[in-house]
Amino acid sequence: MTQELTAARAAQSNGQAPHRQAAVTSGTASPDAGSHAERHSALDPAERAPVSREEGLLLYRDMTLGRRFEDKCAEMYYRGKMFGFVHLYNGQEAVSTGVIKAMRQQHDWFCSTYRDHVHALSCGVPAREVMSELFGKATGCSKGRGGSMHLFSREHHLLGGYAFIGEGIPIALGAAFSSRYKRDALGQADSDAVTAAFFGDGTCNVGQFFECLNMAALWKLPILFVVENNRWAIGMDHNRATSEPEIWRKAAAFGMAGEEVDGMDVLAVRAAALRAVERARAGEGPTLLECLTYRFRGHSLADPDELRAAAEKEFWAQRDPIKRLASDLIQAALASEADLKAIEAEVDAEVADCVAFALAAPEPDGSELTRYIWAED
């Protein structure tokens, strides 16, 4: 019998989906760690998704690839090999992996932000194509025209990364509307794709966020609004920028499901995502999923990261989502340390390969400067 990693179901009230969930962690936040840490510590124990050995190792590999890919990006940037704005995802891997790997690859749709490298990798875009795009090469997933903030892959249903906050939410809403329209108006019974829109806490103060939540709830569109709340909107503390810091509560104004989850625990995120996807496919409408997470690096590689307190960084470093999953898998006898080391070595080889491939790849041909601006067919 397949072994599974699971935990007790969290208490539910009035038959509604649980909304304040976190993995059980030792210790609470000190005042010096900040309000985001205090809120994380106050979360109720989470319902965590059960996983088989195969599933657990897949999640571990995906998170490890995201982390080590981003570390290599930092190395290339500081060596002067990579240019432009580069926003890394270190620390938030449980959100990308937890949501995207709970959905159907090349069937469901995904929309990202300017912090999009790891979302692309989780969607299945080859590391070679992502790294090539960061180097502006013709072999990149956006043909070298997008760079770090504008990754796109129709093949892998990645609807793009977007430099301006909130830009991707209406695009994701359109994908969700398309899925519903094909089923209801065109009679395509198999049109059950769900869309996930990723964005940060700062985006929840802009108009597109509220407008799209309203339309999604009105038409019961199959979409997950995934908030990656890492507290800092560049250098703006979330609590100073919004009248209601608990973003998941804003779902109530639109009559949609809202959940708050530990964004440092991939199994808690996965469980919440599976619930939301099930509701969406059943025609029960959207979910606003707020993941409490933290980025381990500055806003971008040009950010010296001097605003955040040392105690705050230490609190979140102790809750590293990759280390947490590794410990869970070993304790549940789903994997050995040797298994995980083998995955890490495989990932390191893949990352080294994608860098070598990108460095050797050709630049876009100047004769194609205006290609992909107008429709060709």
Give an overview in words:
This protein has 377 residues and is an alpha/beta fold. It has a domain of 238 residues: Rossmann fold (3-Layer(aba) Sandwich), CATH 3.40.50. The protein is built from 12 helices and 9 strands. A 7-stranded parallel beta sheet has the order 2-1-8-9-5-4-3, sandwiched between helices. Helix 1 links the parallel strand 1 and strand 2. Helix 2 runs antiparallel to helix 11. It is globular, with a radius of gyration of 20 Å. The N and C termini lie far apart (53 Å). The N terminus is likely disordered.
Using the alpha-carbon principal axes, give the shape: globular
State the distance separating the first and last CA atoms. 53 Å
Level-1 CATH class name of the domain at 82-319: Alpha Beta
CATH topology of the domain at 82-319: Rossmann fold
Q: Numbering strands along the chain, what is their spatial order in the largest sheet? A: 2-1-8-9-5-4-3
| Poorly predicted sequence stretches spanning 5 or more consecutive residues | 1-18
Number-wise, the strands total 9
Mean pLDDT: 92
Major sheet summary line: 7 strands, parallel
Residue share in β-strands: 5-15%
In CATH, the homologous superfamily of the domain at 82-319 goes by the name Thiamin diphosphate (ThDP)-binding fold, Pyr/PP domains
CATH architecture of the domain at 82-319: 3-Layer(aba) Sandwich
Helical proportion, percent range: 25-40%
Radius of gyration: 20 Å
Number of DSSP helical runs? 12
Which H/E pattern describes the elements? EHEHHEHHHEHEEEHEHEHHH
Structure class? alpha/beta
